[in-house]
Amino acid sequence: MTTSNPTRPTSPTLVILRGNSASGKTTAAREVRRRFGRGAALLEQDYLRRTLLREHDSAHIQPVAPAFITAAARTALDLGYHVILEGILHTERYGTALHHLIDNHPGPVAVFYLDVSFDETVNRHLNRNEPIPVTPDEMRTWYTHRDLLGIPNETLISETSALEQTVTTILHTSGLTTVDPQTPCPRRCRHCARESAQPHAAEATVP
């Protein structure tokens, strides 16, 4: 879904990228942010839930993570960052919070779902550089077929889509290829100004 509020034409863009484990969403989200550059916040569900909160993703508890993650996204948007939010983000636990985030964002919103079959997720897990020690039976308990948010224009990306194609689809469909950073750093920072004057300078040199 891509929407806009004419009274706030400079509202930042919200991109949500969902899919099952090993669907490729984290790799794609990181590459989208890398290509956009400064001014886009990358929020990874696994890091926020597992590392910051140390919360289990379970249907048997009243989780804090959905409210925490969407509040982080809302804060970044309010501060002028474009936001790329990625994760499994099961509708059972995250659907209400995500719908509220989307419905209350005045700027552009683009939602993507990486539609990868169970057999392919198993294959990708087994072929990771650092395989996760889980069995296919354990993985099946995580897997949900087409766990869509049910939002108009939610974009499905097939398992046959290579990384380059997936990243290009996300960048163009979301409109991130045509928007500028709105955060203070890219607009006013002397380091960013120097980067603009020297476009081939490595980002790693900027403190």
UniProtKB/TrEMBL annotation:
<protein>
    <recommendedName>
        <fullName>Kinase</fullName>
    </recommendedName>
</protein>
<dbReference type="InterPro" id="IPR027417">
    <property type="entry name" value="P-loop_NTPase"/>
</dbReference>
<dbReference type="Pfam" id="PF13671">
    <property type="entry name" value="AAA_33"/>
</dbReference>
